[in-house]
Amino acid sequence: MTYSRGIILLVDDDPAILLTVGDLLQFNGYEVIKASTAEQALDQLSRLSPDLVILDISMPGMGGMGFLREITHDRGKLKYPVLVFTARGELNDFFTGMEIEGFLAKFNNPETLLEKVGQIIDKKFCTPSESARGVKKHRVLLAEDDEDIRNDLLKRLLYHGHEAWGVGSGLSILEAVFTHRPSVVMLKYILPHMNGPAIAQMLAGMPSTRNISVILYDDSGLHSPSATFPHVRAFVPTAEGNALLKAVQETT
Q1: What is the pLDDT of residues 10-28, one digit of tens each?
Q2: Rounded to two decimals, what is the model's pTM?
Q3: What is the pLDDT of residues 86-127, one digit of tens each?
Q4: Within 10 Å of residue 189's Cβ, how many Cβ atoms?
Q5: Do 195 and 135 reside in the same domain of the chain?
Q6: Are 232 and 197 in contact (CB under 8 A)?
Q7: Would the CA dihedral through 228, 230, 234, 236 be positive or negative?
């Protein structure tokens, strides 16, 4: 299964921009939702929560500035990361100090756009000191039956440079471990068909999988944070993404 690198709301009244920029982003792994007016964009936001909004300022109707006002909290912060994307290069100074992630003139080099988009979306999932720590990259196989949690965890792992795959049941992981040859297996404690501790025991009993590092997690509150389990390298008492990502990063 292919996982999106992030959801982008692309807002521009130029059909050519929607087509070319949209295709560029989709080709590079992003899910792109398009809107040709600020009003359409607000309607889209009633149904989705994008990782980034790429916004044209000069549009008919409400326009880009009206859209920014609509997505601004009372305390002055934007509800979503916004990259202002406009042909009017002189607006760069106008946005200095505003709560936006960046400014990029239209018709810039596609690589520049992709680099900027990647930096903004990566920041949503990365911790500031990650690059300084020299984090080791892993091949991670995840067993999680909640699709939303599974996709969020996979997205975080992929953004941090790990290779990652996910399955939804205990039985599925036993086949997938031979297909993907992971260095880390991350198991939810309670899974359909076979629970995490039982899977860890089976992996430890096979010569070809006994050296895989197993991370077990459980958000039921039934286990102490200091709990230990046979054949499990680390136990995480939550399904929270940053805590599980940290456990993977601390695996040597």
Answers
A1: 999 999 999 999 999 988 8
A2: 0.53
A3: 766 556 566 555 578 888 877 778 888 888 898 888 776 654
A4: 19
A5: yes
A6: yes
A7: negative
